[in-house]
Amino acid sequence: MKTERWRGVAGIALLIVFVASASTHAKAARSIDSVQICSSKLPFRWNGNAYFLSGTYTVHLISSVGLDSTATLVLSVIKPVEPRVTIAANALVVCKGSVVDIVASSNLKIKPYYTLFTPNYTVNVGDGTDSNFIYTPKNGDSVKVRMDLKDAAACITHQSVYSNTLFFLVKEKAVP
Q1: pTM of this prediction?
Q2: How far apart are CA 120 and CA 44, in angstroms?
């Protein structure tokens, strides 16, 4: 190391040398990124490029010290799913005061939140992810369910959808 005098101040000159052997160049860095993205989130940006279609894309990069690397993107573009919810009851014609079981079913793989709408009130069961409801209808009541999707990462067309509507016929109990 060499010490020099410059304007009366002692300083140290430092030289950093990167030494790359032939074996370093033979082992170029490689990386593979696999990404699934909803088509509504396109374009997908990666390594300074914009991508719009599913496919495998490779870029060759050179570092500031001259080492090269290869990066590969395996991009899968997913079409959004249109969420659907249907409800069914164990009975639509019941005696006065009878309890009805209502079950909501969805076409999604994620767990949605359900709210049952009745003529007089709104029902959430537990944390809202329960799809089973117990209801005591009055004659002429109609009910439906709203399904809300809180998963922002889900690839769906709508965050909330309503089910079909069920109509109830309530009969007076038979007198013995």
Answers
A1: 0.65
A2: 47
